[in-house]
């Protein structure tokens, strides 16, 4: 939640500028960028596909989001956000099951597409409530 709070402060202050950087400028930096891009899409009422966000970032910065742990962290942050703002949909809960199967050696037909979460756009009232500090 600390990272979510930091990103909110930067997002709501019109004069704020954020500089995100880690040692190589790809792993942790890409992770934070992916979280912020997904949060902005959620707050704009758009569908969020985390895998597609990571692919888009990688088009501009090779190796962004380097580890499985960073990829999972993106999901966990966004899941915490949608739960805290009461925007969660059933699809979000699916990630925990998919990831548990993946880590437990369960068979995934296409490992390049699992586990991912696609967050469906929430209704306008929920988005307005989520934008409140």
UniProtKB/TrEMBL annotation:
Top-level taxonomy: Eukaryota, Metazoa, Ecdysozoa, Nematoda, Chromadorea
InterPro entries: Oocyte-zygote_transition_reg, Prot-tyrosine_phosphatase-like, PTP_cat, Tyr_Pase_AS, Tyr_Pase_cat, Tyr_Pase_dom
Pfam family, one: Y_phosphatase
The protein, known as: Uncharacterized protein
Organism annotation: Panagrolaimus superbus
All copies of domain Tyrosine-protein phosphatase, residue ranges: 1-81
Domain Tyrosine specific protein phosphatases: 4-72
Membrane-traversing stretches: none
GO MF, one example: protein tyrosine phosphatase activity
